[in-house]
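Morning - zinc ion inputs below, output right after.
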Amino acid sequence: MSNSFSLLETNILKAKGLADAQIAALVEAGVNSREAFQTVGSAATLLELMPGLDAGVAQKVMEWAVGASTASAPQVGGPNIVLDTSDVVYCVHCGAKQPKDYKSGDLCSSCGRQAEPILSCHWCSASGPGKFCRSCGAEFVAPAEYDLALLLKREGLPKDEIATRLKNMAAVEKDQLWGRIRRSR
Ligand SMILES: [Zn+2]
Ligand SMILES: [Zn+2]
């Protein structure tokens, strides 16, 4: 294994805004291949290794090296806080964060596979990507809670209340439902 970046890697790092001296400093710190950035893991850690580095450059380098998902924006002077909103979709295959204009069913912008899992609808048993069933409009529930949703449906809970009910349900109550499901098997 070589102990420095390849010519191509060096050129890419330069294109991202790193100076020769900074690349040399990286190699000295033990970061000597694209793979080594995986160990670094985030732009924040890269900045800790390379205090003089521009945060924007660190971000670009990490996006190139490990993909946009893990290289979240560093918070100046603080830990790496990832603000996650429920609207953000991460690819189930490669973990890449999907662009803002992402629509359910789109292919991953990073790996090209279906970014979201195909879920089965507990209400009409159609399946599809996204948060809602395209056939009946029911909100999908987590696959692990599919059986709970079926039970709630049998109990007569309206279609549009099942997912919300499950989200707000206490763990104890879920356990009780699971107990009933097991007994009925
Ligand atoms: Zn992907
Ligand atoms: Zn449905």
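Note: The beta strands are 119-120, 127-128.

O.
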